[in-house]
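Just scan my protein:

——
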Amino acid sequence: MTDWVKKALTRTLTPKGPRRATPVIVEPNPKLVLLIKFSFVVIGCLVSLEIAHLVVLRVWNSEIFAAVTGLIGTVTGVLIGRHV
């Protein structure tokens, strides 16, 4: 599996019961994988925009920082929530 986002979202479920059954691998929805990839690209763009804002205007922009923080929280929530 060369796709690290898909690998991070893949779950392995072990069936419960008296017999030892083979684990079941549940792959994520392809739309979820694309959404997470898109979110990473948007985070990168917003971080570069914040850096450019700091370099050019020498002022911290709290709105861009709030957007970056919100996106990071959303992506982290999806990644952690998928493994619970």
